[in-house]
Design a protein that fits this description.
alpha/beta, 37% helix, single chain
């Protein structure tokens, strides 16, 4: 028996798409971790700080009897300050913690809001709990026409 070779007419084979390279799972995991890390960093950078309050909130807390702690220097204090506030310069604060009440809300203020954040952090690290920092500081307080005492 002889085998007949059968001629097959060449058919055009459909063009195959090149196989897609699959991304390994470990790359997806790294991408996920990177996305989460960026999200956390952005949240920490732009989320409101609950321990920083506006001038309006500070004024309201002052009216309700909060302890207003001014951490500026004495010459800044003499220019103007919140009536009834207590002056303890930031550099002196760690040594004068006993002068800060533990039974009242505390609002830490300074000229523009930077030193007050440091003062707030010193108090929080020392165990004080009801402590906030006034954003914008005394410059914003005065620009909003809130009451001040001193040289002006």
């Amino acid at each position: 028996m002889s085998r007949k070779r059968r001629r097959v007419s060449p058919k055009k084979s459909p063009k195959r798409k090149p196989a897609k390279k699959r991304t390994p799972i470990w790359e997806w995991i790294l991408i996920g971790i990177a996305v989460i890390a960026v999200g956390v960093l952005l949240y920490n950078r732009f989320a409101p700080d609950p321990s920083q309050i506006s001038v309006d909130q500070a004024a309201q807390m002052n009216e309700q009897g909060a302890f207003m702690l001014d951490v500026r220097e004495p010459d800044e204090w003499q220019d103007f300050h919140i009536p009834g506030a207590t002056l303890i310069p930031l550099g002196d604060l760690p040594g004068r913690l006993s002068e800060v009440p533990t039974d009242r809300e505390i609002v830490v203020v300074c000229r523009s809001g930077n030193r007050s954040q440091e003062g707030r952090d010193i108090l929080l690290e020392a165990g004080f709990t009801n402590v906030s920092s006034m954003a914008g500081g005394m410059n914003k307080w005065r620009s909003q026409g809130l009451p001040t005492e001193g040289g002006q």
